[in-house]
Amino acid sequence: MEPKQQIAQLKAELSSPKRVLITTHQGPDGDAMGSSLAFYQFLKKMGHEVTVVTPNDYPEFLNWLPHNDVVVNYMRQKVLAEDLIANAEYIFHLDYNQLRRSADMTHSLADATAVRVMIDHHPEPNLTVKYRFSETTASSTCELLLTMMQEWDNDQIDSDIATCIYTGIMTDTGCFSFPNATARSFTAASALLSYGIDRTMIYDRIYDNFSAQRMRLMGYCLNEKMEVFPEYRTALISLNLEEQHRYGFVAGDSEGFVNLPLSIKGIRFTAFFLEKEDKVKISFRSKGNFSTNDFARKHFKGGGHLNASGGETKISLDAAVNQFRELLPAYQNTLNAL
Ligand code: 5GP
Ligand code: MN
User: Residue 153: is its pLDDT beyond 90?
Assistant: First the structure.
């Protein structure tokens, strides 16, 4: 079905108040929280009973978003979250397309009887839903959601909704610098400005909101932890739990670290390894045509986009970094052909 037809049908189904649950991927980022809270407000304005449930914590630099106080964190409020999931009439899955990215919520979500809707911009959707809004050419879920809300009822979009949407587009496009920022993204930004957002405030709250400890950790990563492989045009950074502890690490502190080595002349592929209690989380970034998505899928049970993806592994941090180093020679020609 065409997106416009789907919106018309959804709109008709939601013409009387419903119990709606909005959820997103684990380790929610600016796009995940921006789209969830924007849509929360939009549906709330239409008289629905709406809740936002995240699988786990998200960075502090997102907790100023309008209506952040309504968010239910499954990890911390499991009983309440389970109840909301079981009783929802509609579940919206935002900014992800594989149920297992819901982490500990996966089983409850799978068991839910609600009508499901997916709104996402990642490739290769793998989620059974009634309504699927999936556009991989959209820079962000927020960009796609903006188009949907404009089609649905443009008059409902206000500056708080626009603030959430701008946050998602800005963070997913690296402040409009990555190749995923298209004419549509700039058109969206222009429309959002006209709804009265304060874009310098948004930038400041996201990017100039870190602790001194986090800046020192960044310095430590660059000085002591960055490995550069010029022959593969690749660089990596890894952080173990002891190092995180030493620098008072909190969720979100390593946000953006994976991008840092891309500033080095000639570097086209970067990886960042973060040791967690039960796994190692890995982020990949690239410039040009090197598909970090394929790389993440093939070797680290992950996925994402061409130039930005992630994955995870249960092997040790050292073993994961070693595995990565050992994979590089097989990609030497590809990385140097770019
Ligand atoms: P980040 O490195 O910022 O955590 O994630 C970058 C991109 O890769 C995001 O679009 C995110 O959705 C995707 N991504 C990160 N980790 C995973 C993962 O473990 N599995 C999948 N499928 N995608 C991931
Ligand atoms: Mn996104």
Answer: yes
> What burial class does residue 289 get, using C-beta atoms within 10 Å of its C-beta: 0-12 exposed, 13-18 middle, 19+ buried?
exposed
> Could you tell me if 183 and 299 lie in one domain?
no
Pocket residues: Cβ below 6 A from ligand 1:
25, 29, 98, 101, 258, 283, 302-305, 308-312
- Please state the atom number of ligand 1 nearest to the C-alpha of residue 283: 2
- Give pTM, 2 decimals: 0.95
How many domains does the chain divide into?
2
pLDDT band at residue 102, thresholds of 50, 70 and 90?
very high
Let me know whether 69 and 104 are in one domain. Answer: yes
Task: Classify each residue of 219-234 as buried b or exposed e, where b means 16 or more C-beta atoms within 10 Å of its C-beta.
Answer: ebbeeebbeebeebbb
The minimum-distance atom of ligand 1 relative to the CA of 255 is 3
Residue of 120, 255, 273, 309 to test ligand 1 pocket, by largest number of atoms within 8 Å of CB: 309
Dump pLDDT digits (tens) for 46-68. 999 999 999 999 999 999 999 99
- Single out the residue in 157, 184, 207 at which a domain terminates: 207
Q: Residues 162, 268: one domain?
A: no
End-to-end CA distance of the chain: 38
Task: Please name which ligand lies nearest the alpha carbon of 301.
Answer: 1
